[in-house]
From TrEMBL, chain A:
Transmembrane segments: none annotated. GO terms for molecular function: FAD binding; oxidoreductase activity. Gene3D superfamilies: 3.30.465.10, CO dehydrogenase flavoprotein, C-terminal domain (3.30.390.50), Uridine Diphospho-n-acetylenolpyruvylglucosamine Reductase, domain 2 (3.30.43.10). The keyword Flavoprotein applies. This is Carbon-monoxide dehydrogenase medium subunit. Keywords: FAD, Flavoprotein, Oxidoreductase. Residues 2-178 form the FAD-binding PCMH-type domain. Pfam families: CO_deh_flav_C, FAD_binding_5.
From TrEMBL, chain B:
PROSITE patterns: 2FE2S_FER_2. This is Carbon-monoxide dehydrogenase small subunit. It comes from Geodermatophilus ruber. Pathway: Alkaloid degradation; nicotine degradation. The keyword Repeat does not apply. One of its GO terms (molecular function) is oxidoreductase activity. Residues 1-77 form the 2Fe-2S ferredoxin-type domain. Keywords: 2Fe-2S, Iron, Iron-sulfur, Metal-binding, Oxidoreductase. The keyword Iron-sulfur applies. PANTHER family: OXIDOREDUCTASE WITH IRON-SULFUR SUBUNIT (PTHR44379). InterPro entries: 2Fe-2S-bd, 2Fe-2S-bd_dom_sf, 2Fe-2S_ferredoxin-like_sf, 2Fe-2S_ferredoxin-type, Beta-grasp_dom_sf, Diverse_Oxidoreductases.
C-alpha cells in the first residue's frame, strides 16, 4: 500500500490566507492543488512535507479571461477546463494539442496549469507550451505580485522561480493576430509521458513571411527555446525547405538521454521530425497558403 | 482531523488522519468496498468515484480534500432495487467480465451520460481511456454504455 508519510493539513480560504499559512508553517509546507504530481511523490517519499496547504477552495484562481491582447488563465484552471474552452482552442491551438495527450481525461479533471508549471518536470508538456507561447507567470507573495517570463521562471528540473513562501496565481498568454501554433508528442502508450515532443508558434507578417517564431522541445534535454532553429525562419515564407532546416537545427540543439523510452538517435530523429510537423501545422493555422514541397522533405 | 462530506446522498462525519486517501476512507472507514483499489498510481482507474459529479481517481485524492463535497460511489448508482441504466447495460451487454474495473468504468460512464446523453463509440472510448480493463473487454464495455444511452429510463431490475 502506498500512503504518504504523516503531515498536517490546512485548507486556505483565500490567496492571502494561503500565503499566511505558508509563512506560518515554514519551509516544509507545500501547497496542494489537484494533487496529481505531489501526492504520488509523497507516496514514494520523494516529497515529505510537514504541512499541506490545500488551495482547492480558491475559486478566484480558476478562471479564463480575455483581457485585451492577453488570455489570463488562473493557476487552478484544470487541464479539463482548458480543453473544454473553445476560446483556448481558437486562440491557442497548441494548448488543446498538448492537453489531448496529457495523461487521461480523469487525471485531467484534477491536474491544474499552476501545478504542472510548479512541478517543472522536464517531460511535462505545458511547460513547453508556455515557453513556445512566451507566456508570463504571475507569482504572488505577501509583498505583492510579480510577472515574469518563462525563461526566468524555469530554473531547472523541478525548480522554478516561485519561492517557498509564494504562489503561482496566474499564467498569461499573449494573443497575437495571424498566429498559429501546434504541439505533437510521441508516447509509448496513450497518456504516457513523452518519449519526445515538440511545439511551435508562428506569427505571419502582412506579406506572408514569418515575423516571429518559437520552437520548444519536451523530454529532449533542451531548456528554453530552440533559438537557432527559430531564427532561420524569420523573414522567410513558410516552406518545407525552411521547416526542414529548422528541424535539423532543433535536433542539433537537443541533447536527449537514452532511457527506457528510447535511444539517443531515435529521440534526435523525433526532435527533427516533430519540429517539422508542428511548424507545418502552425503555419497552416496562421493562415499560410500551401507550402512549397521539396523532394525528400 | 474531522471531515464531513456527502457520500451517496448521506452526510458522513469522521475523524481521519490527513494522509488518509479517499479510496481507503471509502473502503475502510465507511465500509464501501464497491470502490476498488488497484494500481495506487492513478493509472488503472478502478478507484474512480464521482466528486461533485466529476470522475476522480480516489487513490490520488485525500479524504481531507473532499471534505465539504459530494461523493458518489458505485453503491450510489442504483436507486433502491432499480438499477442505473449503466448497471443494467453492463448486465445486458456482458460489460463486467472479471468485474475488477467495473465500478470505475460505470461511474465514468454515468458522468459521461450526464453531460452527453448520446455519446458515440469514439466519445465513450475517450471517456474511459484513463481506465484499464485487463480482460481487454472494451468492446462489451462500450456496448454496455451504448445500451444505457439507448435506455435512459430503465426503472426496474430485470432479474
Amino acid at each position: 500500500m502506498q500512503v504518504p508519510a504523516p503531515f498536517e493539513y490546512a485548507r486556505a480560504t483565500s490567496v492571502a490566507d494561503a500565503l499566511e499559512l505558508l509563512e506560518r508553517h515554514g519551509p516544509e509546507a507545500r501547497v496542494l492543488a489537484g494533487g496529481h504530481s505531489l501526492l504520488p511523490m509523497m507516496k514514494l517519499r520523494l516529497a515529505r512535507p510537514d504541512w499541506l496547504i490545500d488551495l482547492g477552495d480558491l475559486a478566484e484562481l480558476r478562471h479564463l479571461i480575455r483581457d485585451g491582447d492577453w488570455l489570463r488563465v488562473g493557476a487552478l484552471t484544470t487541464h479539463a477546463d482548458l480543453l473544454a474552452s473553445a476560446q483556448v482552442g481558437r486562440l491557442l491551438p497548441i494548448v488543446h494539442d498538448a492537453e489531448r495527450v496529457i495523461a487521461d481525461p480523469v487525471v485531467r479533471n484534477r491536474g491544474t496549469i499552476g501545478g504542472s508549471l510548479g512541478q517543472a518536470d522536464p517531460a511535462e508538456d505545458l511547460s513547453t507550451v508556455c515557453d513556445v507561447l512566451r507566456a508570463r507567470v504571475v507569482i504572488t507573495g505577501r509583498a505583492g505580485e510579480r510577472v515574469i517570463g518563462m525563461e526566468e521562471f524555469h530554473r531547472g528540473p523541478y525548480e522554478t522561480a516561485c519561492e517557498q513562501h509564494e504562489l503561482i496565481t496566474e499564467v498569461r498568454f499573449p494573443v497575437r493576430p495571424r498566429s498559429g501554433s501546434a504541439y505533437e508528442k510521441v508516447e509509448r502508450r496513450v497518456g504516457d509521458w513523452a518519449v519526445a515532443a515538440a511545439g511551435a508558434a508562428l506569427v505571419l507578417a502582412d506579406d506572408g513571411t514569418i515575423a516571429d517564431a518559437s520552437i520548444g522541445l519536451t523530454a529532449l534535454g533542451l531548456s528554453g527555446l530552440a533559438t537557432d532553429a527559430a531564427a532561420v525562419l524569420l523573414g522567410t515564407h513558410p516552406s518545407e525547405e525552411v521547416f526542414a532546416e529548422a528541424g535539423r537545427l532543433a535536433a542539433a540543439a537537443s541533447s536527449p538521454v537514452e532511457d527506457q523510452r528510447g535511444p539517443v538517435d531515435y529521440k534526435r530523429h523525433l526532435a527533427e521530425e516533430l519540429t517539422r510537423r508542428v511548424l507545418r501545422s502552425a503555419a497552416e493555422r496562421a493562415g499560410a497558403g500551401a507550402l512549397t514541397a521539396v523532394q525528400g522533405g | 482531523m474531522q471531515v464531513t462530506m456527502t457520500v451517496n446522498g448521506a452526510e458522513v462525519t469522521r475523524d481521519v488522519e490527513p494522509r488518509l486517501l479517499l479510496v481507503h476512507f471509502l473502503r475502510d472507514t465507511l465500509g464501501l468496498t464497491g470502490t476498488h483499489w488497484g494500481c495506487d498510481t492513478s493509472n488503472c482507474g478502478t478507484c474512480v468515484v464521482l466528486v461533485d459529479g466529476v470522475p476522480v481517481k480516489s487513490c490520488t485524492a485525500l479524504a481531507a480534500m473532499t471534505s465539504g463535497h459530494e461523493v458518489r460511489t458505485v453503491e450510489g448508482l442504483a436507486d433502491g432495487a432499480a438499477l442505473d441504466p449503466v448497471q443494467q447495460g453492463f448486465m445486458e451487454e456482458h460489460g463486467l467480465q472479471c468485474g475488477f474495473c467495473t465500478p470505475g468504468m460505470m461511474l465514468t460512464a454515468r458522468a459521461l451520460l450526464d453531460r452527453n446523453p448520446d455519446p458515440d463509440e469514439a466519445e465513450i472510448r475517450e471517456a474511459i481511456s484513463g481506465q484499464i480493463c485487463r480482460c481487454t473487454g472494451y468492446a462489451t464495455i462500450v456496448r454496455a454504455v451504448r445500451w444505457a444511452a439507448a435506455h435512459p429510463a430503465t426503472e426496474e431490475v430485470r432479474a
